[in-house]
Specification:
The complex is a heterotrimer of chains A (95), B (486) and C (488).
Chain A lengths: L4 H10 L6 H18 L23 E2 L9 H6 L9 E4 L4
Chain B lengths: L1 H6 L2 H9 L5 H13 L7 E4 L1 H13 L11 E5 L26 H8 L3 E6 L33 H8 L6 E5 L5 H7 L2 E4 L19 E6 L2 H11 L29 E5 L9 H16 L3 E5 L7 H16 L17 H12 L2 H14 L5 H21 L5 E5 L15 H5 L6 H6 L3 E8 L5 E8 L4 H15 L12
Parallel strand pairs in B: 2-3, 7-8, 7-9
Antiparallel strand pairs in B: 1-3, 4-6, 5-6, 5-10, 9-11, 10-11
Helix pairs in contact in B: 3-4, 6-7, 8-16, 10-12, 10-13
Chain C lengths: L8 E4 L2 E14 L36 E2 H13 L7 E2 L2 E4 L9 E4 L9 E7 L2 E14 L3 E3 L6 E5 L6 E7 L6 H18 L11 E11 L9 E6 L2 H20 L8 E5 L4 E4 L12 E2 L6 E2 L2 H9 L5 H12 L3 H8 L2 H13 L2 H19 L10 H12 L5 H11 L6 H8 L7 H14 L1 H8 L6 H11 L6 H12 L1
Parallel strand pairs in C: 13-14
Antiparallel strand pairs in C: 1-2, 2-11, 2-12, 4-17, 5-6, 5-16, 7-8, 8-11, 9-10, 12-13, 14-15
Helix pairs in contact in C: 2-3, 5-6, 7-8, 7-9, 9-10, 12-14, 12-15, 14-15
Classes of the chains: A mainly alpha (95), B alpha/beta (486), C alpha+beta (488).
């Protein structure tokens, strides 16, 4: 599996990380070497194996339906890059 | 005498404070002073010195000696969210982030009287094995100049070995506690998955991350583990099991204990010293009444590739929240997408971006089955290997790392060679088992090497005991001079 | 376009196209706190005042599931006659948007909590079953506000993390009326169960529509388009109609339909392709590693089954049998749980036939006029009951009752009191009525002559006069009887 420049650009778009062509080329190289290493898994026949989705040896804990959080708007907005006291503010989406 | 205070280990310090031979203020100032002189190591990202001394003074006015860490100063890895103390995860994207909340593990430490003196450097978002990916610069291994301290808990292992903190806590996703412990000649425990709460820890790979203690010796480790490990309803993967008095129950009697030696861990080209170390450990086990049994963990060689699919996949999703909207670094953008792309491009370092890309790719449409699903299946095979082995043995002994600490910059150009550092530690995270690394010797360069004891799930007591026995018989001495102190 | 026999067909150049419609309904779960966090779900609060650290996706925050929301989903599944899956998994649906703080939504992908079921619609030409594909639980997103700041979008995360049930229908809907009936039925079932209040204005019930077309007679399904952003049944119908016609036009011109997501523009009455088409969403679903698989046992499900109240279909059957209502009447009275409750309270103490007529007639007119729900009715079931009894026992006429009703709507006064105070009792004493009638007959000899010689229509005149002279209080039925006797 070779990862070409087009794929690198597509994945960058999906991950919302901008990348120039030079960096993309280097990244492609790194990814290719990592992927040839990963491809070792193809040696194994896992047709009849169940995937392991959860390693925690417990069952899903259910919470009672109670309101336990109060209004902490100040804390929530404290680290916001914008100074608006009521909302998070972001640049508009291009429609 | 200030210098002597920082030579004391955790359990000793607790004892002296309880006996009123030392005050919290004295102890806290001693570690802070030493930390201030050690900036060359670059182990700290944030210092909380003034506040810490205030807290120490408050403690001394009304000391509570029933606490397990009475007035004890501790620096912690900068992956734990500490209330009102900057928490960066070693990243530019959280450079100015100050949490308004406390992680469960650090709250446990505070509840037992501990005082946080600072936040320690680490690889960015815990991704790395040498602390060379941190936005805040490299960390020096106190063992020798220009040596990496290991990673991702590099700042922690460095600060600990340099005695800037009597003990510390780190996180381990693929070896990030055990490998730096091995590189610095200290003890590091990765507990069973679900043992320590992940609430308030900056998430890297949710099904692999575990917080754990890093200490000078096994006794200290047992004490720290007791404090850190609690059942937390705020973490759905936290397990409610019977937690022991690990320190009080610490016992070096390993008579009749069956210790497995996995043949697949004998890798080609492994340095001779590591093999000798392993043999030393085997010998000690036998001499102390333990039984050595050859076992096979047939899927060992597939652990690293599996890890490098699962961990980046989870990370790519966990790091999606760093988008410049709610907190953290934001780059100006012409529109929302532009803002996202610039923010994440400038805010994340190269290794993090590499892993996000790998993760996004292995989850993407058309590749999910071939990579992620496949990796989850191999993960089960790896876990099954251990389950089978544990029918025959109580614990497993292996080296911690395939080499000792390497030079800063030595492995930066080849990501895969960097990844191979974790070859002995990664399978344990995939299986969710507990494992401890203890310093066991030196290589011919004089750099420390560690041995790893792997246990059954939730049986930390057994591996602490075995480690205790090994430690007693090895009598490891860390030959650290204070070369970095002005 | 042709709508014969309840059919909905689009005709172009002699080609008949049928429209295949599927709905994905998002219903907000009625619960105190959110699906994975402990914040309140109350509607209409000040922005960002119901947001916890978990909701805002701060570093290190983790989801913990709300047991009640699971119960609500199972209950709804039972109401949809669906299979409850004992093992289900929560997956992360990954994408970036300002009102999605985690950068992913916790949802369910391949293993939803509820499987296949069905909903029965009462259509004019008979019952129709609409298949349900599945129901799953997922987090709602926050709100992006685009029109306050010209340069920026403001984000309110109050709604972020509220539990939603996504109910996916099979592509069994064929007409706009069926769409209307389906949404109303779903809403009704959930209101009966108390699992969702179905308030479309507040956004607790929303739907995405999938539309495709095919030539009548074709077995294969056409390519479908999804229409988002329709928040009322009326707009949904308009959107479907526009989209179906658009697709037919494309096909007739020799083109093919691109599978895409479209928005409905309410001003222009048309659907538009969403710009992010080149940026096609790859959600990269994978099981959420912060959660474990949800395992339900038979005991748990059975306990919930026991608590299920009588649902609309059963209630309709019972109303028809017990109260001898027509299917049409029964339909109306069970369509909403509050209406059925009101009706049952009224008919407990008074005549069922009258109750049916007064509720579906006068009361509904009143509620429509004021644009309120029956729970806000100014006239209580108790008092409506009393009014009906006054008619039944002859105290007042139906006509008088209407004027009493008008008085009651301004404050739910006891009708008995009103009748007393205003002296509205019907005059039913035969002797008194005879006197009144005799007076009218005596005063109008010419008309009596005319009537007796064949002008039957004049009967109404005499009745009218009696009513006038009695200020409307004469018992019309008796007046008719006595007058008839006297004039013949």
């Amino acid at each position: 599996m070779t990862i070409d420049l087009k794929t690198v650009k597509h994945i960058s778009k999906l991950s919302r990380i901008s990348i120039d062509d030079n960096k993309a080329k280097k990244l492609g190289k790194d990814l290719n070497s990592i992927f040839s290493f990963i491809e070792k898994l193809n040696e194994l026949d896992t047709k009849n194996t169940e995937p392991l989705t959860s390693i925690a040896e417990t069952t899903l804990k259910l919470r009672k339906d109670e309101i336990k959080s109060e209004n902490i708007r100040e804390d929530i907005l404290k680290n916001s890059p914008d100074k608006n006291k009521d909302f998070f503010v972001v640049p508009k989406v291009v429609e | 005498m200030m210098s002597n205070i920082t030579d004391l280990k955790l359990v000793e310090l607790v004892d002296k404070i309880k006996k009123k031979e030392l005050s919290s203020t004295e102890v806290t100032i001693a570690f802070i002073e030493r930390s201030k002189k050690s900036k060359k190591l670059n182990a700290y990202i944030s210092e909380n010195y003034e506040n810490a001394i205030k807290k120490a003074k408050i403690f001394d006015q009304k000391p509570d000696f029933k606490k397990k860490l009475p007035g004890i100063p501790i620096a912690v890895k900068d992956l734990f969210c500490t209330k009102n103390i900057r928490t960066t995860a070693g990243s530019k994207i959280l450079e100015n982030f100050v949490p308004t909340y406390e992680s469960t593990v650090t709250q446990n430490i505070l509840d037992e009287g501990g005082i946080v003196i600072g936040k320690l450097n680490c690889d960015e978002f815990a991704m790395g094995s040498s602390n060379e990916t941190s936005y805040f610069g490299n960390v020096q291994n106190p063992v020798s100049e220009n040596l990496v301290p290991g990673g991702s808990s590099g700042g922690s292992s460095s600060a600990l070995a340099a005695k800037l903190t009597p003990a510390t806590i780190g996180t381990d996703t693929g070896g990030s506690i055990r490998q730096p412990a091995s590189f610095t000649g200290t003890v590091g425990l990765k507990p069973t998955y679900g043992s320590c709460s992940r609430y308030g820890i900056v998430a890297f790979a949710s099904s692999l991350d575990q917080a754990g203690p890093m200490t000078h010796d096994v006794k200290d480790c047992s004490l720290m583990f007791e404090i850190m490990s609690t059942y937390d309803t705020k973490d759905s993967t936290s397990v409610d099991f019977k937690r022991e008095n690990y320190l009080t129950n610490l016992n070096e009697n390993i008579k009749g204990k069956k210790i497995g030696i996995p043949k697949e861990y004998r890798v080609d080209g492994m340095p001779k010293e590591i093999d000798e170390l392993w043999e030393k450990g085997i010998k000690i086990i036998k001499e102390n009444g333990g039984q050595i049994i050859e076992i096979s963990l047939p899927n060992t060689n597939y652990a690293l590739p599996t890890y490098y699919i699962v961990a980046p996949a989870e990370a790519s999703s966990n790091l999606a929240r760093y988008d410049g909207v709610k907190y953290g670094f934001r780059s100006k953008g012409e529109n929302l997408i532009d803002m996202y792309e610039k923010t994440r491009s400038e805010g994340f370092g190269d290794e993090v971006k590499r892993r996000i890309m790998i993760g996004t790719y292995v989850l993407s449409s058309g590749y999910y089955d071939a990579y992620y699903l496949k990796a989850q299946k191999v993960r089960r095979l790896i876990k099954n290997d251990f389950d089978e082995a544990y029918k025959k043995v109580d614990a497993i002994l292996t080296p911690s790392t395939p080499s000792s600490a390497f030079k800063i910059g030595e492995k930066l150009n080849d990501p895969v060679s960097m990844y191979l550092n974790d070859i002995f530690t990664v399978p344990i995270n995939l299986a969710g088992l507990p494992a401890i690394s203890i310093p066991a010797g030196h290589d011919k360069k004089g750099y420390p090497l560690g041995l790893q004891v792997i246990g059954k799930a939730f049986d930390e007591q057994s591996i602490l005991n075995i480690a205790f026995a090994l430690e007693k018989n090895i009598s490891f001495k860390n030959n650290i001079t204070d070369w970095w102190i002005k | 376009m042709s709508k014969n026999n309840g059919e909905y067909l689009i005709i172009r150049n002699d080609n008949k196209y049928e429209v295949i419609i599927g709905l994905e309904v998002h219903a907000q779960v009625l619960s105190e706190s959110k699906l994975f966090s402990t914040s309140s779900t109350k509607f209409g609060s000040e922005p960002n005042t119901q947001v916890s650290l978990v909701d805002a996706a701060f570093p290190g925050m983790l989801p913990v599931i709300n047991e009640h929301c699971i119960k609500q989903a199972v209950k709804t599944g039972i109401g949809l006659k669906a299979k409850i899956n004992k093992r289900s998994i929560f997956d992360r649906k990954n994408y970036f948007y300002a009102d999605l703080p985690q950068g992913y939504q916790i949802s369910q992908y391949k293993n939803p909590i509820v499987g296949e079921g069905s909903v029965t619609l009462d259509m004019p030409n008979g019952e129709k079953n609409i298949g349900i594909e599945r129901l799953h639980l997922e987090q709602d997103a926050g709100k992006s506000i685009h029109d306050i700041d010209p340069q920026n979008t403001l984000v309110d995360l109050n709604r972020s993390g509220v539990a939603l049930m996504e109910i996916v229908s099979k592509p069994d809907l064929r007409t706009l009326d069926e769409v209307n009936a389906y949404i109303k039925k779903l809403r009704s079932i959930m209101r009966y169960l108390g699992t969702c209040d179905g308030n479309m204005q507040e956004g607790s019930l929303r739907a995405d529509v999938n539309v495709s077309v095919r030539k009548k007679g074709d077995k294969k399904l056409g390519t479908r388009c999804e229409i988002k952003n329709v928040n009322s049944i009326k707009f949904m119908q308009m959107a479907i109609d526009f989209e179906a016609n658009r697709q037919v036009d494309v096909i007739e011109e020799g083109g093919s339909i691109d599978q895409e997501t479209r928005l409905f523009d309410t001003k222009k009455n048309e659907t538009r392709s969403m710009r992010s088409k080149e940026d096609a969403h790859d959600y990269r679903y994978f099981p959420d590693p912060d959660l474990l698989p949800l395992e339900l046992n038979d005991n748990y499900i059975d306990q919930i089954k026991k608590d299920i109240p009588e649902l609309p279909d059963e209630k309709k059957k019972r109303f028809i049998e017990k109260f001898k209502l027509s299917p049409y009447e029964a339909n109306i009275l069970v369509s909403d749980i509050e209406i059925s409750k009101y009706f049952e309270e009224v008919s407990k103490n008074s005549d069922v036939k009258l109750a049916t007529n007064w509720i579906t007639g006068e009361l509904f007119a009143l509620l429509n006029e004021k644009n309120i729900e029956i729970t806000e009715s100014p006239i209580s079931s108790k008092n409506l009951s009393k009014l009906i009894n006054l008619i039944k026992d002859g105290t007042i006429s139906g006509k008088i009752a209407k004027s009493v009703f008008e008085i009651m709507r301004d404050g739910d006064k006891d009708p008995i009191t009103i009748v007393e105070e205003k002296g509205l009792k019907q005059q039913s004493d035969p002797k008194e009525l005879e006197n009144l009638i005799n007076k009218v007959i005596t005063e109008n000899p010419k008309n009596v002559e005319a009537y007796k010689s064949g002008k039957d229509k004049l009967f109404g005149f005499f009745v009218g006069q009696v009513m006038k002279n009695s200020n409307g209080k004469a018992n019309p039925k008796l007046v008719n009887e006595i007058l008839k006797k006297k004039l013949n």
